[in-house]
Amino acid sequence: MLRLVQVTIAAGAEINPGFTGDYVRVHGAAVAIRFRTEEGDDFTLVQGQEANLSPFKKLLLSHAEATAQTFTIYVGSDGSVASSAEVSGVVEVTNFPVVQDVEVTNFPVDYTVYGASYASEASTTGNNAVAIVAPGANVNGMIIHEASFLYNDGTYGTGSMLAKATAPATVFDGDVILAPEKRFNDGAGTYVSSKLNRPIYIAPGKGLYIISTTGMSRFIRRVLYTLL
C-alpha cells in the first residue's frame, strides 16, 4: 500500500503523525526533513529522495528551519514504492543511536491528511459541467484523496467526474476520474454510485468537474483533496 500524505511541522517541533510502513519518499519539500524510527533509524531526506526501511510503527518527523514547513511524503508498506522514474536520488539509511527522545502525541494510524473538501447534492442539467476545483486554482498539482458520487437513475442518464484544463462538454470529454460503477434499487428508485479506489494525482492547470448527460434532480458528490 502506498499513500501520499501532507504534514505541516512547526519550527522546533518533532511530530508523530502515526505513519506505519517500510518506505518513505519526499515528494514535495522546500527544505530537508529529518526522520526517526523506533528501530533507531535517524536520517534526513530532501525532495525526490527515498529510503527503504525496516518495518516501523513509529515515525518521528522534524526539520531545522526557523519557520513552519509543509511536506508531502509517500509512505509505503509491504514493498510498495513510488515510481522509480520520479525519484531523483536514493539515500542509504544508517542506524544511529537515538540520543534524545521526544514526547509526542499518537494519532490514529489509518487516517487521511487533506487540504480541502467539497460536498454538494445540487441538481445538474444535461452536459453542463459543474466545477469542483477550477483549473486556475490548480497551480502546482492536486491530490484527490477521496471522491464519490450517487445519483438517481430515473432519467437513464450517465454522470462522471472529470479532470480537464477547460470545462468538459460531455461525460467522457477529459480524464475520467469516476464513472458509474454500481447500480442498485431500494424499492423507491434506481441509483448509480461510484467511489475512488485510491488517491490520484491531477497535473497542474487541470480542474475537477462533474457532469451528466441529462438533468439530475439530485446529484450527490463529495471530494477530499489537497492543492500542492
Structure description:
It is a single chain. With 228 residues, this protein is mostly beta strands. It folds into two domains: 2-90, Jelly Rolls (Sandwich), CATH 2.60.120; 116-227, Jelly Rolls (Sandwich), CATH 2.60.120. 0% of the residues lie in helices and 47% in strands. The chain has no helices and 19 strands. It has strands spanning 2-9, 14-15, 21-28, 33-37, 42-45, 49-56, 59-62, 69-76, 89-90, 116-120, 130-133, 142-152, 159-164, 175-178, 182-185, 190-195, 200-202, 207-212, 219-227. The strands form four sheets. Strands 10, 12, 15, 16, 17 and 19 form a six-stranded antiparallel β-sheet that branches. A five-stranded mixed β-sheet has the order 1-8-3-6-9, with no helix packed on it. It has a four-stranded antiparallel β-sheet with strand order 2-7-4-5, with no helix packed on it. β4 (33-37) and β5 (42-45) form a beta hairpin. It is elongated, with a radius of gyration of 21 Å. It starts with a strand and ends with a strand.
Classify the beta-strand content into a percent band: over 45%
Strand segment count: 19
User: Quick one: biggest sheet?
Assistant: 6 strands, antiparallel
CATH structural fold name of the largest domain: Jelly Rolls
Number of helices: 0
Order of helices and strands: EEEEEEEEEEEEEEEEEEE
Overall residue-averaged pLDDT value: 80
| Shape by Cα distribution | elongated
Distance between the termini: 22 Å
- Alpha-beta classification: mainly beta
What percentage of residues falls in helices of 4 or more residues? under 10%
- What is the CATH architecture annotation of the largest domain? Sandwich
State the CATH class of the largest domain: Mainly Beta
Number of domains: 2
